[in-house]
Amino acid sequence: MDDIAPPPRHPRLARTIAVAGHPLLLAGALGLWWALGAGDETTLAVLVAVLAASMTLERLVPAMPTWRLGLGAHLRLGGVYLLGLLLSGLMIAGYESLLPGALAPVRARIGAVLWPAGWPTLVQALLLFFASDLIYYWAHRAIHRWAPLWRMTGHGFHHAFQNLHAINTGTNHPFELVLLTLPLVLLAAVTGAPEAATGAAGILVLANATLAHANVRMDTPVLNLFFTSSDQHRRHHSVVFEESNTNYACNAILWDRLFGTFSRGPVRQTGIGPTQPGLWRMFLLPFREPPDVDTVSTRSRDAG
Question: Model pTM?
Answer without folding.
Answer: 0.94
